[in-house]
Every structure is written in C-alpha cells, then in structure tokens.
Hints:
This protein is α/β, with parallel strands linked by helices. The chain folds into two domains: 5-113 and 228-290, D-Maltodextrin-Binding Protein, domain 2 (3-Layer(aba) Sandwich); 116-221, D-Maltodextrin-Binding Protein, domain 2, CATH 3.40.190. Helices cover 33% and strands 22% of the residues. It is built from ten helices and 13 strands. The strands form three sheets. A six-stranded mixed β-sheet has the order 2-1-3-12-4-13, with helices on both faces. Strands 9-6-10-5-11 form a five-stranded mixed β-sheet. It has a two-stranded antiparallel ribbon with strand order 7-8. Strand 1, helix 2 and strand 2 form a beta-alpha-beta unit. Helix 2 crosses helix 8 and helix 2 (43-58) packs antiparallel against helix 9 (257-265). The radius of gyration is 20 Å and the shape is globular. It starts with a helix and ends with a helix.
Amino acid sequence: MKTTKTARAGVLSSLAVLTLSGCGLASAGDGDRTISIIVTESAPYQEPTEIAKEMLAEEGWTLEPTYVTDIIQPNQVVSQGEYDANYFQNAAYLRQFNQDNGTDVAPAFSVYYAPAGIFSLRYDSLEDLPEGAQISLPVDTANNGRGLKVLADEGLLEVDESVPVAQLSQEDITDNPHNFEFIEIDQQSTAQTLSDVDAGFSFVRMVVEADHDLDEVTLKLEPELDDSLPYSIVVGVQPGDEESEKTQALQEVFQSEEVEEWFNEYLEGSVEFTDEYTTDNISESWTEFTAE
C-alpha cells in the first residue's frame, strides 16, 4: 500500500503491518480535538479533505488525514477503531464490504454523487457495438451490475429484474442475444483501459481524469436513481459514532459551501456535490438499503 509524503511520517511503521493501532487517536478520551481520517489518494477525496483540515483548524480541531491507494484497508481500520472515519467509497461498496469481510462501518453523511455510464473509444453508440463485443465491468460486486443494468435498460440484454442493481452480476443475465463478452477489472482501471475493449463501464470522474473527451466517448449514462444513497460517496464511521462531536465537526466542513464550490469547479462540475444525506436522516435509508 502507498501513502503520500504528508501522511507517511507519522504512520509509516504502523501502515507497514496494516494495523495502525499505534496512532491511538480514535480512542482518545474527553477533550480530544484530533480527528483521524483515512482517505483515498485522488483529487475528489484529497482536496476536500485539505479544505476540511483548514476549516477545522480554525475551530480548534486537528484533522490528521492518511492518504492511501487501496480500497480495502480504510474500512478495516475504522471498523477496528484505529481511525475515526474514512472517505473513499459509495454506500453500495460499503454494504458489500461489510457483508464480505465482517466489518462494521456505517455511513455518516454524503459528500458527492458519482455518475457513471458506458463509454467507448471505438464506437459512437450502443447500437454500433458488434456481435461478441468485449465490455469491461468493475470487478467489485457493488458496481459490477451497473453496466449490465444500463445495457438491459437499452434492450441489449436481459437480466433478472428481481435483483437490485447493487447486487446484479453476470449470473443474473437471462439473455445475451449479442453474445457480449464481459471482462471484469479493478474499478480504478476502468477508464484507463477503455482502449483495450470495445466499451466499458466507468465513472464520469475517472473518464475525464484519463483525458478522454466526455462528449465523444459517452455511449450512455446511468439514469438517476430514486434513492441516490447506494452510489453517493459517504464518510464512514463506526456505528454509534454518527452523532459524536467529531463526526458532527466533519459533516459541518465536508458539507460546507467551500467544499461545494470546489466540486462545482472540479472537472467543470462533472462530479456532483451532495449534502442530501446527513447524520440526521441517513440511518433510515441505510437500514432500508442493507435490508434488501
């Protein structure tokens, strides 16, 4: 796992063994004004975190971020109480990770919504995709079925409609009349590998960051969901910490006008800031989502 220079000095030895228990910040007693947060190493995560860090400092808080490149450790260390919070995932991924790994992390509030769709460097429309086209999908279960659902909605294949999109997989395909071949890859590589396939499911942010012209490569974007929680990017904490002073302080800065302004300017607004979910209302939606 890789950490940035700013985070490495204080936690390198702990990170090497993936325990991080030496930081001791999440378990500090009364009067603790230090918040530890583990964040993925990418602009929509790092930059808002740095804004939050400056704003919290003005209120007497010390935000200590650790920036990492993997999407496994952040839930583990929060579940174990070694960090106060993480910021790197959508709620669908969090649900699946908890189920697969026995971790216990809950979303506290939303920060942005991650639009996604089917993209291609070779074809101009979904109808142009040839027989047997190779189409890449994220390998993680939470995002794997999103591309399948887009194709099914466009009539290019059929899936079991009783399966929620966040649980949909190739096993749920009931008819593949065009004999599409689906290639599962790491979600972080979906935009960078578009040149290797006929089309692929990816996230708008990653496609733009890979220097592709969004207008030229977009075949179809996902429709907006009635409930946007599954694919909203959230800050995760231990269950029961949603109402803590630290979490409330994090929400105030991550859902601030300053962070919203940053998202409005980033990649010409292709990533949508959202404060729809807060510590006051997210629990009900999360409970319904995890009960599916």
